[in-house]
Design a protein that fits this description.
about 100 residues; 4-stranded antiparallel sheet; alpha+beta
Length: about 100
């Protein structure tokens, strides 16, 4: 039951971030390719690549979302919980990258 609440909260927060940023979606696209291999290590779902304490994250449609390890890491972690819980959506282009690294 606790996991369901966590997923619902994460999904809600991700949706709020996406809806709040919808006015800047077209100007916010960041074309960052996923790392091709070492020294980066990939998460089992292929959405997160980490190296030296920083993790770059993509949505299920391969759009860059954010970086954990940046000053906004907590926000990025919450958004990525939502990305993982939701079906494939264009979330990366909706994240306000001028505020969330």
């Amino acid at each position: 039951m606790r996991q369901l609440r966590v997923l619902a909260t994460a999904g809600g927060l991700a949706a709020a971030a996406v809806l709040g940023a919808s006015g800047t979606a077209s100007a916010d696209h960041i074309d960052r390719p996923k790392p091709a291999g070492p020294p980066w290590s990939a998460s089992p779902d292929g959405l997160t690549y980490c190296f030296a304490g920083y993790c770059d994250n993509w949505d299920k449609l391969d759009n860059y979302v954010c970086t954990t390890g940046a000053p906004t890491a907590l926000i990025c972690d919450v958004i990525m919980m939502g990305v993982r819980a939701l079906p494939p959506m264009d979330i990366g282009d909706l994240v306000p990258h001028e505020f969330i690294a």
